[in-house]
Amino acid sequence: MNVAIIDYGAGNVPSVERALQKLGATTERVNTTEKLKAAKAIVLPGVGHYAALIRALDERGLREPLVEALLRGKPFLGICLGLQALYQSSEEAPELAGLGIFPGRVCALPSNVKLPHMGWNRLKVQRRSALLEGLSNEDYFYFAHSFAAQAADGETAAACDYGAEFAAVLCVDKLCAVQFHPEKSGSAGAKLLGNFLRMVA
Amino acid sequence: MTLARRIIPCLDVDGARVVKGVNFVGLRDAGDPAELAARYDEEGADELVVLDIAASRDQRPTFLETIRRVAEQLAIPLTAGGGIRTLEDARAVVQAGADKVTINTSAVERPELISELSREFGAQAVVLAIDSKREGAHWDVRVRGGRDSAKLDTLEWAKRGVEAGAGELLLTSMDKDGTQSGFDVPLTAAISSEVSVPVIASGGAKLPEHFAEIFGAGKADAALAASIFHDSIQSIRELKKFLQNQNIQVRLSC
After folding, report:
1. What angle separates helix B33-43 from helix B60-73, to the nearest 10 degrees?
2. Which residue from B minimizes the CA distance to A49?
3. Contacts A49 to B, Cβ<8 Å
4. Which residues on chain A are in Cβ contact (under 8 Å) with B71?
5. Closest residue on chain A to B220 (Cα)
6. What does the DSSP assignment read for A124-139?
7. In angstroms, rounded to a whole number, what is the distance separating the alpha carbons of residues A54 and A51?
8. DSSP, res B233
9. Which residues of A are known catalytic residues?
């Protein structure tokens, strides 16, 4: 199965690629409209600054085909910034428009806790989802971020609590996104990626 | 707040091999970095740090190859450092597979480096390493492998580093390093309670009690050690079980 990993120079592309390949997936790094359209499934990795991701998508003309693919229900997994990009905007770069798939703004985590939220944390699963099959509130995932989206009834499959409750896992049909890094989250992360690949198959 | 305390093994690498020694003296071979990395990932390490102790220009390609080999083995985050002086040095390390870069002497010599890396890779990818030694009433920052004084106060330098964009501090006590008598609790607690980013304590670990102490009174967010893991004096899994029994939250993988 062919999974397209959007490659805009993000640091975690190689590790996402490796993690998916270990699970038997065939991956391809893509950064053109044509390849994005041809993909069976799309992964949007991201680490670092929100502006870098949004600008890279716009510079490469990937915003439109990506939004179209998401609205058509093509299997999608956003990782970290790849989750944050789905909202209307982010406090990290207020002047830039997000992809606007979900309403609301990504905000800074409260400053009464140490930031970045860096390390292994557990989920508060809110409802059953194919992405979290076989995973529970006992599993740890690796987070590294200072901004987050508010948990909402519609799209949030699991929240996480760090200073405040925020959206950790989104899952609407085959549109998935996680705030943590499954490619760095040991066996729990591999299980989640495997679940995603099964949704694609 | 349910963030687990992290246990981080450190591989000091000289070219393609892991080495160890007390205070950089009497280095001896401690194994293949990729093999050790795979073992620690399997045993439940939360992250891994790889440091190029020689940090010479000539050896750079070898070290980058080591990072690539180590990264291939890991499903946990990897921090790499040693000899990173420029944005380009850091980029090479990130492209080789490191999730975070750590800088030490080069940041003291040119503090703007912290901001440059933070802007490029995000604060979460910039680990400011500080070697610290007690000097009377304060803790002095040491550079060049601990040999020279940077003429900076550790707390002030830590705060400046965070302001400049460091997302994490790797705090090594030169007084405790190599002694196996426990982490430096007063130093770590003093820094950790004053900065807004996570602090990794390093230097002096041997017993599970040392880890419990640094996570408790020491207020560390993570603890780093090298030789006790390489020599199998301490298994990571057993250490985590001990900590869990002490009601310290850790990630125990099944």
Report:
1. 30
2. B122
3. 119, 122
4. 14-15, 18
5. A114
6. EE-S--GGGTT--TT-
7. 5
8. S
9. 80, 181, 183
| pTM of the complete model | 0.95
Domain limits, chain B: 6-245
* C-alpha torsion sign, points A16, A191, A25, A1: negative
Q: Distance (Å) from the C-alpha of residue A61 to the closest C-alpha of chain B?
A: 22
CB contact under 8 A, B125 and A11: yes
User: Taking the mean position of all CA atoms in its chain, how far away is CA A6?
Assistant: 12
* CA nearest neighbour of B104 among B142, B140, B156: B142
Output the pLDDT for position A9.
Answer: 72
What distance in Å separates residue A122's CA from the closest CA in chain B? Answer: 7
DSSP H or E stretch at residue A193: helix A186-200
| CATH of segment(s) A2-200 | 3.40.50.880
Q: Do B251 and A120 touch (CB under 8 A)?
A: yes
From the CA of A22, how many Å to the nearest CA of chain B?
10
Contact residues, chain A, for B97 at CB < 8 Å: 14-15
Domain ranges for chain A, please list them. 2-200
Q: What ipTM, to 2 d.p.?
A: 0.94
What tokens does B228 get? 């006790």
pLDDT at B204 over 90: yes
CATH superfamily placement of domain B6-245:
Aldolase class I (3.20.20.70)
Least confident of B8-12, B15-19, B72-76, B187-191: B15-19
A11, B121: Cβ pair inside 8 Å?
yes
Identity of the residue in A12, A114, A184 whose CB atom sits nearest the CB atom of B221: A114
Residue B221: pLDDT band (50, 70, 90) is very high
- pLDDT (tens, 9 = 90+) of chain A, 201 residues, equals 689 999 987 667 889 999 999 999 999 999 999 999 999 999 999 888 899 999 999 999 999 999 999 999 999 999 999 999 999 999 999 999 999 999 999 999 999 999 999 999 999 999 999 999 999 999 999 999 999 999 988 899 999 999 999 999 999 999 999 999 999 999 999 999 999 999 998
Query: Of the candidates A116, A117, A184, which has its C-beta nearest B77's C-beta?
Result: A184
Structure token digits, residue B177? 């390093």
* pLDDT at position A2: 84
Torsions phi, psi for B165 (to 5 deg):
125, 10
